[in-house]
Specification:
Blueprint lengths: L1 H20 L5 E7 L18 H9 L1 E3 L2 E2 L5 H10 L3 H4 L15 H7 L3 E6 L13 E5 L5 E4 L5 E5 L10 H7 L6 E6 L31 H30 L6 E7 L14 H4 L3 E4 L8 E3 L3 E2 L3 H8 L14 H5 L9 E5 L8 E5 L3 E6 L10 H4 L2 H11 L18 E5 L17 H17 L31 H6 L4
Parallel strand pairs: 1-8, 1-9, 2-11, 3-12, 4-5, 4-8
Antiparallel strand pairs: 2-10, 5-6, 6-7, 9-10, 13-14, 14-15, 15-16
Amino acid sequence: MRHYCFLTVLTLGLLANFANAAPARPNFILFIADDMAWEDCGAYGNKAVRTPHLDRLAREGMRFDRAFVTASSCSPSRSSLLTGRYPHSTDAEQLHWPLPKAQVTFAEKLKAAGYWTAAVGKWHLGNEVKDRFDVVHEAGAGGFQLQVGADGKAKKMVAEKDESGCGQWVSTLQARPKDKPFFLWLAALDPHRDYVTNSIPNPHRPADVVVPPYLPDAPDTRRDLALYYDEITRLDGFIGQVLAELENQGAAENTVILFISDNGRAFPRCKTTLYDSGIRTPLFVRWPAKVKPGSVCGSLVSTVDFGPTFLELAGLPAPPSFQGRSFAPLLTNPAARVREHIFAEHNWHDYDAHKRAVRSERFKYIRNFDTNLPNTPPADAVRSLTFVEMRRLRDAGKLTPAQLMPFQKPKPAEELYDVSADPHELRNVASDPQHAATLAQLRAALAAWQVETTDLASGLRAKDEFDRETGEPLPNRQRPRPTKTQLLGAGRP
């Protein structure tokens, strides 16, 4: 009998030791900035903008130098991120199109596997997939917080203005159940337009900002950029609060933190373009348990890869609907490669558009299916200090060829850039015989991707809803916009 009891105790002890030794599934926090350029923080070399907490993420984790979104437009980019599919495959490829209920998301897979999931801040994905999260706190119009239950129904509007969209980040982290791993989708409204003065106690000085060469170095441009910097710094402060709360809970060691932006800054030749200023994103990954501090990865990564990566790190299989591939191997071996190319697209966003791009580590190829249209920035950027000044300088004949690009029409059907030698993509070498082989190779890669993902060259086009010179609404503007299903049902091509 004593021998039996001894074996029982021994067995229970071994089982307890095994349970204690089994690695816990990691937690996940995904920070999403709204309209922040990849280089506008200290970790990527811009010392004029104050981002101590983002810089800390880079210092304590891995900085990715070739990370890209799949669309330079808010809601299509987020739909792609959540589903692991390219925007045209989500049926939500145009701005304000809701993500259909039939789409599979990585959030629901984590939730089904026992993760507690919450989305807090900017949503912009429609109502059909809110049930993929346990909790949704959506930043509503005017900065108010609309609290939504897992059933997708509004619970109450909290009458507390939150211009940043980050006001409930910490309280949601505090409210999480402590007996489950968690996934938090923390999406800011910063630094989206419209900008306001004094959004932080110590505003940036216009004299200190970095003006890219495709924008005129004029006083109003600098004022505009300084206000944009202010909102980045405000966002950085909220990230610092989440990091402090995570440490206070003793959960930092096994929490994978990722920071990205949904697209480039809302300035001319940035957001809604397929240049790196539109689709390249900052990406930091901090995971003290696995990722080496201060590491840098130069491999290509796309946000379509995030879903497969989250699921692999959680020990779960990726569903067959996913079109991305996991970049988990890069977290322990930043010299590895998981893809040869990234792909991106731009469809309707305030204005008619249809473009596609493929990028290797060195070259970018853009195919414009809308050559008759200029690269007009989004309507809020058209109304900006910068664009008003650009129109004035254009009329006075004082813009450089690079600065005239948002007004250029027709534009070339094909663009090719040696991004290593020409990081701002100012010299189109598509007609240069020295690059003919590269042009043919990237042209073929893009065509193959379009076939593989059933991307129609014509797309589903929509008319301009804003004036391209002033940004003011046109009489045909519709709110809400008809969905893809409604347009197809109405016989639209």
